[in-house]
Amino acid sequence: MDQTLMLFGILFLLSIIFSKISDKYGVPVLLMFLAIGMLAGSDGIFGLEFDNAKIAGDVGTIALVYILFAGGFNTGFKELQPVLKTGIVLSTLGVVISAVVTGIFAYYIMNFSILESLLFGAIISSTDAAAVFAIMKTTKLKNNLSHLLEFESGSNDPAAIFLTVTILGFVTATALPDTFTLIKDFSLEFIFGGLMGYAFGSMIPSLMNKIKLGYWGLYPVLLISIVAILFGLTEKIGGNGYIAVYVAGIFANKREFLYKKNLVGFFEGIAWMMQIFIFLTLGLLVFPSELPKVAFLSFMMAVVIMFIARPISVFISTMFSKYTNKEKLFISWVGLRGVVPIILATYPLSAGAQNAQIIFNTVFFIAIISVLAQGITLNKVAKYFGVIDEKKKFIGAMTSVPIRYSGIRQFCIGQDSKIIGKNLSELELPDYFLILLSKRNDEYIKVSGSFEFRENDLLLILCEDEQKYQKTLEVYEF
């Protein structure tokens, strides 16, 4: 056991070290994680034997749950509103179109049966949340393109999973479900997933504010537990757990609550750990010696996906959107395939489907080509199509300009105030009412979400409108 733990520690440490190399030379960091897993596998220098597709799939599922929650939790709801309709179409219709187009080409290029070809198309149809989230953090784009691409990658996995499971059922079963049943199941998964995500996401801030835990370290544990329960419960009632956790993260971020900033940072770390863990696991699962056999097929299918299937799905899905042709071409290029298609490729392996190993190896190779080709060139392509937001670069360089606020006010908390003993997050004050500072016993304290109000606190409040100021004091019983 001690050797196993030490080995995992070494692999994680190598992943972090290689991430620095990745930053320096522009190689996508997730590709580095994957390479380390391959080097550690049975064909690599460590020679670790691992060929259990079921375990790899389960590990991938758990990792994806927290990657998606962290992605939603780090995204503001206001930022998503302008791209919501287009994002939903891309993550549903776009996935179906991409799967069908890819499947048609796979039928002729890979010599699969029509069902196996469509299964292959479904597996490789979704863009990868882990890859897109990681790359978008370093790229500032115009016209909310970053938010659209993040939302699409975070919400299109359920459609790909549904298509994969359904078509795999066709491949392995004797009786096929009718079209009405398929449409009903598909719709219910999204509806139940969205509703459960909204319910839990709306509940999380209130729960965090009202529950009084004795130790800060228990709050992350509580939230980890809630996310796990949400995923399992949603799947149990016929909804899509991946949609639920992503939506829950978005709505949890919508309101302030105790230790919110700390928890967002914590889950960003969890997401990185999960990304490293799943890429290492999938790297161990693959046998590099088998990849040359599918290299040509993988290259051909990668070209089809990047230059035919993805652009067709994007242009049809964004037909009625505000985006220009150049922006649509850029959206098409950010169709990175990564961890999710590889996880889905383990499903046929677990089911013992015919040609499952070829499908897995080909999908794995395509993911490498996609992350390498599209990830490395993304900034250059963004500049070529003119979608880089140049204004973002000058925010830190702006000269300081004195600003006067006429709405700064002082308020002293009296002994009858109802806010005594409550923290700032618990109050859920409106955006126009900002408590900037508190003076307590000749000490000035910056007011954050965990700040607890006490009698005789002198508050410095920013509120432009006098009527709104007085109304807020009255409603919240200051």
Structure write-up:
It contains 19 helices and four strands. By secondary structure, it is mainly alpha-helical. It has helices at residues 2-25, 29-40, 53-73, 77-80, 84-109, 114-123, 129-136, 145-155, 157-172, 179-210, 218-236, 241-253, 260-285, 295-317, 325-333, 339-351, 356-384, 424-427, 466-475; strands at residues 408-412, 434-440, 443-446, 458-462. Strand 2 and strand 3 (443-446) form a beta hairpin. Helix 3 (53-73) packs antiparallel against helix 13 (260-285), helix 5 (84-109) packs across helix 8 and helix 9 (157-172) crosses helix 10 (179-210). The protein is elongated and about 80 Å long. The protein folds into two domains: 1-385, Na+/H+ antiporter like fold; 408-476, Regulator of K+ conductance, C-terminal domain (Alpha-Beta Plaits, 2-Layer Sandwich), CATH 3.30.70.1450.
Q: What is the count of distinct domains? A: 2
Structural class: mainly alpha
Q: Sheet bearing the most strands, described? A: 4 strands, antiparallel
Please give the CATH architecture of the largest domain. Answer: Up-down Bundle
Strand order of the largest sheet: 1-4-2-3
- Number of helical stretches of at least 4 residues: 19
What's the pLDDT, averaged over the residues? 82
Assembly of the depicted chains = single chain
What is the helix fraction of residues, given as a range?
A: 55-70%
Find the count of extended strands (DSSP E, 2+ residues).
Answer: 4
Please tell me how large the radius of gyration is.
25 Å
Order of helices and strands: HHHHHHHHHHHHHHHHHEHEEEH
Distance between the termini: 57 Å
Strand content: under 5%
GO molecular function: antiporter activity; monoatomic cation transmembrane transporter activity
Subcellular location: Cell membrane
Organism: Campylobacter hyointestinalis subsp. hyointestinalis
Main location: membrane
